Amino acid sequence: MGAAPGGGTVGQDRVMGSVPADPADARPREWLALPGGGIRPVVSVPGSSGVSELLAYAAWLARLRPACQCGRSRLGSGRTCGSAECVAELRVQEAGG
């Protein structure tokens, strides 16, 4: 990397604000070609048998979100999924029970 006229650096393609705020944004995106010329963002995830599986990008992001105690994605405050049962359980836990 050498110095460019004007004091910049040659060979760096950086844009202000280009650093991802979320680690999920840093993951390289892959694209799946669809019939008819469409494309779909996907992520390769290593499977338990050693074979990679393709997940839709949105499904992969959903895996990163913390799950409620019932297994669904957390909403709102981020502590429960919002169902009456899970909210009631959270109240019992917070009350010290």
Set out the fold topology.
Layout: H1 23-26, E1 30-33, E2 39-46, E3 52-56, H2 57-64, H3 84-94
Antiparallel strand pairs: 1-2, 2-3
Could you walk me through the main structural features you see in this protein, from its secondary elements to its overall organization?
- With 97 residues, the protein is an alpha+beta fold.
- It folds into two domains: 26-64, no CATH class; 66-97, no CATH class.
- The chain contains three helices and three strands.
- The protein has helices at residues 23-26, 57-64, 84-94; strands at residues 30-33, 39-46, 52-56.
- The chain has a three-stranded antiparallel beta sheet.
- The radius of gyration is 22 Å and the shape is elongated.
How would you sum up this structure in a few lines?
This protein is α+β, with helices and mostly antiparallel strands and 97 residues long. It has three helices and three strands, in the order αβββαα. Strand 1 and strand 2 form a beta hairpin.
| Overall strand count | 3
Oligomer: single chain
Give me the number of helical elements: 3
List SSEs in N-to-C order. Answer: HEEEHH
Kindly state the percentage of residues in helix. Answer: 10-25%
Biggest sheet details: 3 strands, antiparallel
* Proportion of residues in β-strands: 15-25%
Please tell me what the overall shape is.
Answer: elongated
The mean pLDDT is 75
Structural class estimated from helices and strands: alpha+beta
Instruction: Report low-confidence residues grouped into runs of 5 or more.
Output: none
Strand order of the largest sheet: 1-2-3
Count of all domains: 2
Distance between the termini: 62 Å
Kindly provide the radius of gyration, computed on alpha-carbon positions and rounded to a whole number of angstroms: 22 Å
